[in-house]
């Protein structure tokens, strides 16, 4: 089956969202709402991609930058299309798009328990930084949507 690749637009939102849910990507009600993704794509119009097979979105990567660092989020490939090189291709497209914007380094976070995801990132040359603590702070109330999230 032929896979085509193109920039993600807001028209892809519903299919992308369904795929994120299916693939277990960590979501929340604000950033991942249609408005949230629209805001993201407006700010980062050239760096997020979808993979399409027979008219259906089977892979997504959200990617953007702040003028200095690139960030990848919500990379996923439909379970029935895994290990076909789609993940590697959407990463390559996103990295090329970042390079075209003069970005020199890209980061991402992955749940430690996500063994497959971490093996994938390792295979794509994303090294693990064990000298850092990842910190963040919420600026708004957000509801997590991923089904197996347990609040600590
Ligand atoms: C991670 C994910 C995007 C990979 O997509 P994919 O299209 O299957 O990846 P590719 O076919 O391009 O794999 C490239 C290489 O990554 C490695 N890899 C991919 N999935 C792997 C897995 N489950 N276990 C071990 N290595 C894996 C392999 O080295 C693979 O090369 P190979 O098939 O020749 O051995 C996909 O498994 C997915 O959607 N997972 C659920 C969502 C997720 O975890 N996203 C990342 C969040 S941080």
Structure commentary:
- With 152 residues, this protein is of the alpha+beta class.
- It has one domain (3-145): Gcn5-related N-acetyltransferase (GNAT) (Aminopeptidase, 3-Layer(aba) Sandwich), CATH 3.40.630.
- Helices cover 30% and strands 21% of the residues.
- The protein has helices at residues 13-23, 34-43, 86-100, 115-123; strands at residues 3-7, 49-53, 56-65, 69-77, 105-107.
- Strands 1-2-3-4-5 form a five-stranded mixed sheet, with helices on both faces.
- It is globular, with a radius of gyration of 15 Å.
- The site of coenzyme A has 20 residues, from strand 4, helix 3 and helix 4.
Give a quick summary of the entry.
The chain is of the alpha+beta class.
């Amino acid at each position: 089956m032929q896979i085509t690749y193109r920039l993600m637009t807001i028209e892809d939102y519903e299919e992308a969202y369904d795929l994120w849910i299916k693939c277990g990507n960590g979501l929340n009600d604000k950033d991942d709402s249609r408005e949230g993704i629209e805001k993201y794509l407006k700010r980062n119009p050239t760096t997020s991609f979808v993979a399409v097979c027979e008219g259906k979105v089977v892979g997504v990567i959200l990617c953007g930058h702040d003028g200095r660092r690139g960030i990848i989020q919500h990379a996923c490939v439909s379970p029935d299309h895994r290990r076909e090189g789609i993940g590697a291709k959407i990463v390559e497209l996103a990295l090329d798009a970042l390079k075209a914007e003069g970005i020199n380094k890209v980061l991402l976070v992955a749940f430690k328990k996500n063994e497959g995801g971490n093996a994938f990132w390792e295979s794509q040359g994303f090294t693990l930084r064990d000298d850092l603590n990842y910190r963040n702070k919420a600026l708004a109330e957000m509801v997590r949507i991923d089904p197996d999230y347990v609040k600590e």
